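subagent[fold] <- orchestrator: predict structure for attached chain, return C-alpha cells only, no commentary.
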Amino acid sequence: MVATASFTLADNVLGDDTGDDGVIVDQGGPGFPGAARPIPTLSNLVVLLLALLDGAVAVRSIKRAYL
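subagent[fold] -> orchestrator:
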C-alpha cells in the first residue's frame, strides 16, 4: 500500500500565492522520500522512571493535603 495525497488548486484561494491574476503559483513542493529524520525520544526505562517519580510526587502531595 502506498500513501498518496491529492488536492485541487484554484486562482485566488488558499494555495495560490499570487492573487487573482489567472496564474496559480504555489510555493509548496513535493516531499522527498527518505528525507525524514528520526525523532529522538526517551527510552522505555526513562519513561517508566518518570512515571514512578510523578506517582511518588502525587502520593506525597495527597498525603500532605490531608494531614
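orchestrator: received. Logging for downstream: The CA atoms of residues 22 and 28 lie 18 Å apart. DSSP finds one helix and no strands in the chain.
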